[in-house]
Amino acid sequence: MRIVSLLPSATEIAAALGLAEKLVGRSHECDWPLGLGHLPVLTQPKMNPLADAATIDRDVRALVEDGVSVYKLDADAIRALQPDFVITQSQCELCAVSLGEVAAALRDWLATTAEADAAQLVSLEPMALADVALDIDRVGAALGVEEKAADLNAEIAAGFAALRAQTAALATRKVFFMEWTVPLMGAGNWMPETIAAAGGAVVLGQEGVHSPTVSMADIAAADPDVIVVGPCGFSIERAAQELAPLTPRDDWQALRAVRDGQVYLVNGNHFFNRPGPRLLQSAQIIAEILHPDVFPANNHGTGWLRHA
Question: pTM of the predicted model, to two decimals?
Fold first, then answer.
């Protein structure tokens, strides 16, 4: 079996199902688990991912408005790898190569290849935690490891249930999860459920809906107890850099969470932005932030830091 993954969460799912050694190609963002750096990289961004948040937002919006994919796909390299399966997603064209572009590449391949030899496209559609479980089942069914997928889902579900049981009697804290800085964005999709399991209640975000654009006035009106900064695709260090221009502002300094020292930076890239097996760890990170007297800081430094 030969697998190409064009999505970081899909790579993590395949690895969690015991198929890491079957991967033959990856996206430029597939960096976990470790040890996959030797695999050919099949995608590249058309914008500069090292630019500041405002520039990235501007360039991405321009590409999308022009009807152009945000990422380049090396279709020739995919065909040269002769994969049996290509895993991508249709949930967000800002997260990976567009489903349409991958499908077109496979159609071109199919036109010149015996159907039995062409790769099968497996498309994931995560919008909420239940969808992540369905995607794990979908990958397991396509790749012939249904039982492993069922076991993995059972393990994740049990972990979330145990966490909910621990936080059920704790005070719920209002959380604003900042998924982007320019423009300001809250957190939707699977994030409200993930944070709820940790004993938090998301403000300015809705389960199963894309992340909303908000204003500083919106944040002030929501009056969160805690602000968690985890811009999509950014490390803790990048999150700190992108937050820096906001911190001198009077409206930022006036927020109760800021005055109380309840602003935290998280590794959005490795945890919160990837709808895969490590969302359980994401929830545990939030639990450590919200309830430090109950949960040991096992992920401090790698998953989260308090903003100075």
Answer: 0.90
